[in-house]
């Protein structure tokens, strides 16, 4: 596991953006393309805007980037809460990413169909190779959930499916999420976490007693890949000795 602790949120974003550009260039040199799973929520917005900004966008071989989503709220793609909409507005549209490079979780379908349709998309993209993303971005909720792997939900124990729909009592709504199976076979997994409100969750995940029902992000352990934490000092306050 690699900790990338920065003083401020802005420095965390720059560190992760630099990491992504370098990782992408290495993946493209190795196998001609870069598969990246975007996280949702509010934290990644500044990251996407940074990647699309002068100084970064020229360094990126956009046609070789392929975009996936770690989870999605069950709302239309145009809804204010849609993770896809946020990525589209801040990164995909400004960088003229073509539709063939973007794999949206299709929330126009009903829950079980949407999850199986997305799994089919993943299998088609990776072809005869195992599903292994070059990079998965993850956020961390202050309850230590990640993607839509929320405390005390059945999806935490899913061993077979790569993508599942899950009803989340906490938000009284369905979500669609990558499972630990698809996350833990990635080459790189990077948490992007900042702010004092996350310090307790970070401590529980990294230093606390093992309790995956309470702290689902403890499940994230790439089998043959690297786990990164891009985090500011405020969020790391309870783990720094
Ligand atoms: C979502 C996310 C979720 C998010 C965390 C952190 O769809 O909400 O995927 O897992 O990453 O809740 O959210 P913030 O970045 O907004 O704190």
UniProtKB/TrEMBL annotation:
CDD domains: 6PGL. Pfam families: Glucosamine_iso (PF01182). It is an enzyme of class 3 (hydrolase). It catalyses: 6-phospho-D-glucono-1,5-lactone + H2O = 6-phospho-D-gluconate + H(+). InterPro entries: 6-phosphogluconolactonase_DevB, 6PGL, Glc/Gal-6P_isomerase, NagB/RpiA_transferase-like. GO terms for molecular function: 6-phosphogluconolactonase activity. It comes from the Bacteria. SUPFAM superfamilies: NagB/RpiA/CoA transferase-like. Keywords: Hydrolase. Signal peptide: none annotated. Hydrolysis of 6-phosphogluconolactone to 6-phosphogluconate. Belongs to the glucosamine/galactosamine-6-phosphate isomerase family. 6-phosphogluconolactonase subfamily. This is 6-phosphogluconolactonase. It comes from Chryseolinea lacunae.
């Amino acid at each position: 596991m690699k900790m990338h602790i920065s003083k401020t949120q802005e420095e965390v974003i720059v560190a992760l953006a630099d990491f992504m550009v370098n990782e992408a260039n290495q993946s493209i040199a190795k196998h001609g393309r870069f598969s990246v799973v975007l996280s949702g929520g509010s934290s990644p917005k500044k990251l996407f805007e940074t990647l699309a900004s002068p100084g970064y966008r020229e360094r990126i071989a956009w046609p070789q980037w392929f975009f996936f989503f770690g989870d999605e709220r069950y709302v239309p793609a145009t809804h204010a809460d849609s993770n896809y909409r946020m990525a589209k507005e801040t990164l995909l549209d400004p960088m003229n990413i073509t539709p063939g490079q973007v794999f949206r979780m299709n929330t126009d379908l009903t829950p079980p169909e949407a999850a199986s349709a997305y799994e089919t998309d993943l299998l088609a993209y990776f072809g005869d190779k195992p599903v292994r993303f070059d990079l998965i971005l993850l956020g961390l909720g202050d309850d230590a959930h990640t993607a839509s792997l929320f405390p005390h939900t059945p999806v935490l124990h899913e061993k077979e499916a790569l993508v599942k729909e899950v009803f989340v009592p906490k938000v009284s709504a369905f979500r669609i999420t990558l499972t630990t199976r698809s996350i833990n076979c990635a080459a790189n997994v990077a948490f992007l976490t900042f702010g004092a409100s996350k310090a307790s969750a970070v401590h529980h995940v990294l230093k606390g007693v093992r309790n995956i029902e309470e702290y689902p992000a403890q499940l994230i352990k790439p089998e043959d890949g690297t786990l990164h934490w891009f985090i500011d000092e405020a969020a790391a306050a309870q783990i720094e000795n």
